[in-house]
Write a structure and sequence with these properties.
about 170 residues; five-stranded parallel sheet; 5 strands; Rossmann fold; 6 helices; alpha/beta; globular
Length: about 170
């Protein structure tokens, strides 16, 4: 039986840590949907269409490409998971501080639909200190994000923020 999981998030922007988590989740699941959650109140750096495009371009030529689909959803995650007939939700944990929020969300999702399980994966040690928010802050300040995000994302960040690559600081 083909096992499908949903990896939800804002992915503003996607990082190499996100892709590492997808790669490791594919050791457990056959396929993954990277699903961008649409939150009307948030003000992302990249539009929904740009984030979808950046993720798709980040996967081009990647061994994951054939087993990963990119999508978006509005509303409750459990409704989306049921709609795509997934078997679970994948979430990454960087630190203990992530756990409390993620644990609350997993319990609420279980309350809303007891058939959907949440699988927590620890972020790979190489990526444990990065987040999309931190990547944007570093890039905004002219710091080097090379190697922390896919090259297409690095270029889009630098273009959007109007900063030059600070690879000398890498």
């Amino acid at each position: 039986m083909d096992k499908l999981a949903v990896y939800p998030g804002s992915f503003d922007p996607i990082t190499n840590g996100h892709l590492d988590l997808v790669e490791r989740a594919l050791k457990i699941f056959d396929r993954i949907v990277i699903a961008i959650a649409v939150h009307p109140g948030k003000n992302p750096l990249f539009s929904l269409e740009e984030r979808l495009d950046l993720i798709r371009k980040s996967l081009e030529g990647h061994p994951l490409q054939g087993r990963v689909r990119v999508d978006c959803f509005k509303g409750l995650l459990v409704d989306y998971v049921r709609e795509v007939e997934a078997h679970g939700i994948v979430r990454g944990l960087r630190a203990v501080s992530d756990f409390e929020y993620e644990f609350q969300m997993a319990l609420m999702n279980r309350k809303l639909n007891a058939d959907i399980e949440t699988l927590f994966l620890m972020t790979g040690m190489r990526w444990i200190y990065i987040s999309s928010r931190l990547i944007k802050e570093v890039a905004t300040s002219g710091g080097c994000v090379h190697g922390l995000v896919p090259e297409v994302v690095e270029k889009a960040l630098l273009d959007r923020l109007g900063v030059k690559c600070a690879r000398a600081s890498c």
